[in-house]
From TrEMBL:
Keywords: Magnesium, Metal-binding, Phosphotransferase system, Sugar transport, Transferase, Transport. Binds 1 Mg(2+) ion per trimer. Pfam families: PTS_IIA. The keyword Methyltransferase does not apply. Gene3D superfamilies: Phosphotransferase system, lactose/cellobiose-type IIA subunit. This is Phosphotransferase system PTS lactose/cellobiose-specific IIA subunit. GO terms for biological process: phosphoenolpyruvate-dependent sugar phosphotransferase system. The lineage of its organism: Bacteria, Pseudomonadati, Pseudomonadota, Gammaproteobacteria, Aeromonadales. It comes from Tolumonas auensis (strain DSM 9187 / NBRC 110442 / TA 4).
Length: 105
């Protein structure tokens, strides 16, 4: 298991990168660049999976017994992960709507 600080930073960095790529995908979709948007969403998903994998390692190490020290930065990392997951889900839907709208024109 990696160092706790390293794990927390892994969540923050990967979740942040995922969220940034999602918003770039949304920007591309607004411009009608759907291939680029899909590529960015796929890349975002890779970073999201990495952040989630680190979170899963922490959960497994804790074994539901409170073994993992909870810190403010840990809470911050969880916030980053959850907001990036929500952004990915919503932006994926928005990109699909942009595609549907473009197909009607």
């Amino acid at each position: 298991m990696m160092d706790l600080e390293e794990a927390v930073m892994g969540i923050i960095v990967n979740a942040g990168q995922s969220r940034s790529l999602c918003f770039e995908a949304l920007h591309q979709a607004k411009q009608g660049q759907f291939v680029e948007a899909d590529s960015l969403l796929k890349e975002a998903n890779t970073f999201a999976r990495e952040a989630h994998a680190v979170q899963t390692q922490l959960i497994e190490a804790d074994e539901g017994e409170g073994k993992t020290r909870m810190t403010l930065v840990m809470v911050h990392a969880q916030d980053h992960l959850m907001t990036s997951i929500l952004a990915k889900e919503l932006i994926t839907e928005l990109v699909d709507l942009y595609k549907q709208n473009a197909a009607r024109i």
